[in-house]
Amino acid sequence: MPKFTVAICGGGVGGLACAVALSRYPDIQVDIYEAASQFAEVGAGVGVWPRAWKVVQALGLDRELAQVAVVAPDHRPRLSFNFRKGDQPEGHTFYQLYTPGGLVTIHRPEFQHILLRHLSPSARTHTSKRLASYSQSSQQEPQSRVTLYFEDGSSATCDVLIGADGVKSATRASLVDELAQAARAAGRPNEADSLRRMAQARWSGLSAYRTTITAEALRSRMPGHTLLHEPMAYFGHDRQLTAYPLLHGKIINVAAFKARYDLEGTTMKGPWVTEATKDEIAADFDGWEPEVKAIFQCITKVSRWAVHTTEPLPSFISGRVALIGDSAHASVPFQGAGAGQAIEDAYLLATLLGHPKTTLSTLARALQIYDAVRRPYAQNVAETSRECGMLFTFNYPGLSSRDIQTGQMAEKLRAVAETIQRKWSWAWDSTLDGDLARAVRMLEPS
Ligand SMILES: Cc1cc2nc3c(=O)[nH]c(=O)nc-3n(C[C@H](O)[C@H](O)[C@H](O)COP(=O)(O)OP(=O)(O)OC[C@H]3O[C@@H](n4cnc5c(N)ncnc54)[C@H](O)[C@@H]3O)c2cc1C
């Protein structure tokens, strides 16, 4: 007989990492509800920094992942990313971003297969189950349950619901509605109105072209291309391109961004993901250096994503419901941190739920601790990701792109790079261990 049941809504990296982390506790029954008809990831890469990689190791996934990932040798400090100013005919490398601990780059579908393989046999997966909303009793009694309502008309119940349903999260919409109702009932109508606005994701003003190319194609176009050996980040005004090798260097992940910060926060009309052509991307990066042009020439298929984010929520939890990953804190991807943050949320929440002190009657407390420990950190990472995006595209306050085009270029670029290095230091100078220990201490007051 399980001590309680957990429903996870969404089988992306966050939801599956959470299910794998909960699989360590045989007394918790896990059900995963995924909207798609099968578990499928976008055929792109994901970079994982040391903080999240340590969680991957704790979950016992690292050996299998190392077979398919590009891992820094022995995880020793190394120079990881070359920063190059790319919006001119002759590229100019202005910085080498030092990434102590290294970056692990993983092909997303392989990552998902490995997570699925590590689910406990008792974890039940349900596909074609798109959550519409949920309800729960406002009285937090041990026997109160959460009811999930799916778009196909069916429903399910659980003791805890974890919303891992990404940036368009239906769980977040229901949770924000609960928080707004509570604010209104407490006589805070203004707070209720601003909460309601947080239910939906907002366009960041960024479009991301996402694709992979083969190293073979790139080698035949430009045998000495830097990307054949090292990750690259190319910078220009309102444009940025990050690329790195995957699958032991056989393929190269490419993410090219176009910024319209004047449109940040607006509502995007039409689909968020559309097909694009290599001519469109080449036109957006017209005048860029030959290395960048060579990348575009190798493209066979490319899609364009309108990158959406969420406003900082005042809570990731409500009663017996918790949000993790992009449903809680979707950010722009300029620190390569969204998936890593989802993995950290998943691991910390699962550790609290699996702890012997957590029972049906203390569930709400475990969720409160999750919120108290994870929310400030994850929201800070989302904010620094936004700042890095502005630096990458030379839109940072006090940073004029004219300065960069003209005489003061070297000095300004170095300042940009050093700021980026500083803003990324969270990724390699800290671990989740301290937060985990603090969370467990809060569960076990002396
Ligand atoms: C261009 C780009 C590059 C990026 N690069 C990196 C990187 O290098 N490193 C990094 O750490 N992060 C990166 N990210 C961010 C990362 O992709 C996300 O933060 C991460 O995928 C979030 O994981 P998640 O599980 O929370 O959500 P998702 O991966 O979006 O998964 C959500 C799941 O929920 C399902 N779902 C949705 N709605 C429902 C519903 N109503 N009911 C049931 N299921 C539902 C979806 O089908 C999906 O399977 C990048 C993002 C972009 C756009």
Automatic annotation (TrEMBL):
The keyword Hydrolase does not apply. Residues 4-384 form the FAD-binding domain. Keywords: FAD, Flavoprotein, Oxidoreductase. The keyword Ubl conjugation does not apply. PROSITE patterns: PROKAR_LIPOPROTEIN (PS51257). Coiled coil: none annotated. Pfam families: FAD_binding_3 (PF01494). GO terms for molecular function: FAD binding; oxidoreductase activity. Gene3D superfamilies: FAD/NAD(P)-binding domain. It comes from the Eukaryota. GO terms for biological process: secondary metabolite biosynthetic process. This is Salicylate hydroxylase.
